[in-house]
Protein: Succinate-semialdehyde dehydrogenase (Acetylating)-like protein
Amino acid sequence: MKGCGVCHSDLHVMKGEIPFSSPCVVGHEITGEVVEHGQHTDAKTIERLPIGSRVVGAFIMPCGNCNYCSKGHDDLCEAFFAYNRAHGTLYDGETRLFLRSSGKPVFMYSMGGLAEYCVVPANALAVLPSSMPYTESAILGCAVFTAYGAMAHAAEVRPGDTVAVIGTGGVGSSCLQIARAFGASDIIAVDIQDDKLEKAKTLGATHTINSAKEDPVEKILEITGGKGVDVAVEALGRPQTFAQCTQSVKDGGRAVMIGLAKAGSLGEVDINRLVRRKIKVIGSYGGRARQDLPKLIRLAETGIFDLGHAVSRKYTFEESGKAFQDLNEGNIIGRAVIEIV
Structure:
């Protein structure tokens, strides 16, 4: 392993807010080098990913064979959710990690990438060009991957669309850059921290709203001439911002939810407005590894997506605990990455 992003999804697991098998190794936003192939690796995979290959990994690891994967919907892979998210294993029902002292299993959140070595299904990997840095490129596998899935597949952002992003952390700030790359006109960033909003301006936001100081829905309506935006994205996973997201879109607009919440959290929506004004509420967990990850690498390689601006802090492997403490306390603007070796 070379780099691993610091993500709120891991923090949710660590705090017990999302049920997951324990003990486990977190870390799902990775770059690294191929050092070994599994016993049953096919010849085409070995040719695509030879020993020594520089790679980036997507956190949704498609099996490639289930009903959804066969249709290209890697983000809905049945095996990923049935085995990894439900039980912390790979798709033979087994983890690859065990305690040395007792042999008891240690489970894997995605590939369990916050480690010196990890085992990753080949379908989740794409080759990383030598021109791209290991550390900054790690965020392609979750923060950028999640943003791209939301913008390309859920929201279907088109040139000229107006977009609001509620919550400008690692994923939300990536949404700003993807919206800009897709040709959105007005891009509105909403947060409660002025420093994050200042950063948002460098990533594509044309307007910023501090929702601790003014009503974000009213302000979005003011910016858009009373109409609302074509697309609103909620990147926090909170009932209040869920409601703000649905209230911010115009008639026929798309409200896209990408923020994970504490288990059991519920969001409210005005049913009559939803029905009468044809509001679309769409959940989006991530992108589609086999088709999207190579595109994201190319966007970053050409500078259309600026990895340098997206990554604001770096930690050593030994500082992993501090990295998640800083994340928990809201001290990270954008995305942080842990440098492993």
